[in-house]
Amino acid sequence: MRPEIELGPKDVLTVEAWRDPLVEALGHDARSAYVERFWLPVLGPSTVLLLRRLAGPLERSPGGMALRLAETSRSLGLGERLGRNSTFLRTISRTIEFELARLVAPARLSVRTVLPPLPRRYVVRLPEQLREELSQAERLASSRVVAADQRLRGRQLALSLVELGEDEAATERQLLRWRFHPALARECSEWAAATRRGTPAREAPPAS
User: Fold this and answer.
1) Looking at the structure, do residues 99 and 139 belong to the same domain, yes or no?
2) Whether residues 59 and 92 fall in one domain
3) pLDDT at 160 over 80
4) At which of 79, 97, 120 does a domain end?
5) 70 Cβ partners below 8 Å, 6+ apart?
6) Is 190 a member of any domain?
7) Distance CA 138, CA 116 (A)
8) Mean pLDDT over all residues of the chain?
């Protein structure tokens, strides 16, 4: 059933940011290439364009903003008609149906500015080429998470060794014995030594 949206005075809908720490940590900005590439075939162009249009203003005013529907509809190329079956209200309803927005009151809408990774039930709707591309993107993202975890663990171990009295070279050798990548062992030992001295360490990308 389509959500019952009640418009405020002069066809105004109050819109606020939907804060979701988990989605914001794992997801993708509504204006990102990921959303354009993988969410768009599922949502359709008008829904993606609306989410992109709202992302910037909601970053500046997350607590709420007035969305003038006729003006916004015209700016998206969806015409001026705002009846219950109008293209623009169907577009808003679509964001709710896909759990990218929710009605918190009849004339108040909470909208995600960060979209979650595309759920598996929608991946099957993608063309084969996009499914393969998404799979590659997910593998790359997973490898980056693993690399970040290894770097954090390496730094924690290196700092513990330095605090126990090991110098930078001995710390690096110990990390190598624990099978850390040589570049990561060096970076972590340098970071730990600099942290112990209270001086900033040179940042290096995680080893691939």
Assistant:
1) no
2) yes
3) yes
4) 120
5) 11, 80, 82
6) yes
7) 13
8) 87
Take residue 69 and report the two structure tokens written for it: 């529907």
> How far, in Å, CA of 171 to CA of 188, rounded?
9
Please give the share of the chain, as a percent, with pLDDT higher than 90. Answer: 59
- Model pLDDT for residues 35-59, shown as the tens digit of each residue: 999 999 999 999 999 999 999 999 9
**Contact present, 47 and 95 (Cβ < 8 Å):** yes
Residue 15 pairs in a beta bridge with 65, 109
- What is the pTM assigned to this prediction? 0.66
Calculate the alpha carbon distances from 51 to 14, 27, 38, 170 in Å.
Answer: 15, 14, 14, 52
Between these two residues, 68 and 146, which has the higher pLDDT value? 68
Per-residue pLDDT tens digits for 109-136:
999 999 999 999 999 989 999 999 998 8
**4 falls within a domain:** no
